[in-house]
Structure formats: structure tokens, C-alpha cells
């Protein structure tokens, strides 16, 4: 999968001697508060689950993340650590997203490092989401590619958010994953079905405490022929955290 690039065109126009910088035809107001958005959170998860796999064999993980957005561009960082499993991971990512009506399109690029293993990986990604379904349902399709594994993983998800008063929201999600060489020693094809429920308590402006419960069901698991399927399984996991959005 080829890497993608996001380019912005900057121009300067003169008006009675005043130079105004524009990007993509928009006035460039770097310090304007309405241009910026941000998010940070701290979490604990009872298992570190990605691509339908229990990566740390039942051990939990602590994570911290920060993301800053300007117009359609975002820059983020994520750090995870598991003292029990002696595991550490850091992700730096750059993304672009755009919304048109009920549709949202997004591209991303992540650099992942694993300090204790002395390894790293580069992962471009892309996705599309549609929120025009009945009953406030949203359908999304995401894909990400590993340069290290030279493989891709795809995931389809169906989500719905419920408002339970002014301070409480609940989000449910159903997901289906497909391994296309991303997990190099795992079987090729559909590999898991997931379901999660996440509740958010918005206790102050910009702040929320969230808790989640999830179940992961392995599909077509064959650890005898595919050693990478050992991490696949049918298991539940929970999480809790705090987040601030600005």
C-alpha cells in the first residue's frame, strides 16, 4: 500500500499593503481559538486488545494520549505501559479528516516504537464513516497497513450513541475484523467479532469519566496451523479512564 501525502497550498494577497496568509483559501489565523481543538485522556484496560488479539496474554495496560487539531488536521501521541508484562509502546500520528453531509473521510499515518524490543513500524491508514443510517446508527470501514509486516488489517464497525440525560452518554459498537497479512503468522481472513459498551459521565465542562466493557469472539481460530492465532480467543475485558476535551 502506498504512503499518502497531505498538502496545503499557502498564498499571500495584498490589500492596501497588508499581507494576509491563506491556506487552502482560508484566512490563516494561527492563534484563533476557534481554529483549534484538543483531547487528552488517561486510561487503564484489563487487557491490551488490538486486531482481535489479547496482545499481553491477560495482562492489563495503562495508557495516556494527547491529540491537537487545527481545521481538518490532527497531530497526536499515545503511550502505553504494562508493568506486569514488561511492555512499552509509543505512537506518534498525523491525520486528516473531512466531513460532507453524513459522510466523513480520513487518512492517517502513525509511527510506532517499542523501546524494550528495540523495534518500530510505520502504518498508513484510511477510513470512511456514514452516519445517515436509521436509529442514529453509524457505519465505518477502516484499514491500516504495516510496513514491517507488509500486510493490512481491515475493520468494519457499527456504532450508536445514546444520551441518558445531560450528563450521561452511552456508546455501543459492533465490529468485524479481517486480517490480510497484518498479523503475519495469523490466518488470512475474518478473525474476530467484537462488541463493546462505553459509558461517559460528563461531570464538568470538557471533562468526562468513562468506563467500558467489551467482548471479543475469535473467528476461524487455528493455532496449530497458524501460531499467530494463539492470541485470538473469546474473552471479555473492561476499562476505565478520564478525558478532557477543549
Descriptive report:
It is globular, with a radius of gyration of 20 Å. It has one domain (35-245): Outer membrane phospholipase (ompla), Chain C (Beta Barrel). The strands form three sheets. The protein has a twelve-stranded antiparallel β-barrel with strand order 4-7-8-9-10-11-12-13-14-15-16-17. 11% of the residues are buried. It is mainly β and 246 residues long. It has strands spanning 10-15, 18-23, 26-27, 36-45, 49-50, 53-54, 61-70, 73-82, 87-100, 103-114, 119-130, 137-146, 151-163, 168-180, 189-204, 207-218, 235-245.
Summarize this, please?
With 246 residues, the protein is mainly beta. The chain has strands spanning 10-15, 18-23, 26-27, 36-45, 49-50, 53-54, 61-70, 73-82, 87-100, 103-114, 119-130, 137-146, 151-163, 168-180, 189-204, 207-218, 235-245.
Give the tags.
single chain; 246 residues; mainly beta; Outer membrane phospholipase (ompla), Chain C; 3-stranded antiparallel sheet; 17 strands; disordered N terminus
Main sheet specs: 12 strands, antiparallel, barrel
Unreliable spans are 1-24
Would you list the SSEs in sequence order as H and E? EEEEEEEEEEEEEEEEE
Mean pLDDT across the residues is 89
List the helices and strands and how they pair.
Blueprint: E1 10-15, E2 18-23, E3 26-27, E4 36-45, E5 49-50, E6 53-54, E7 61-70, E8 73-82, E9 87-100, E10 103-114, E11 119-130, E12 137-146, E13 151-163, E14 168-180, E15 189-204, E16 207-218, E17 235-245
Antiparallel strand pairs: 1-2, 2-3, 4-7, 4-17, 5-6, 7-8, 8-9, 9-10, 10-11, 11-12, 12-13, 13-14, 14-15, 15-16, 16-17
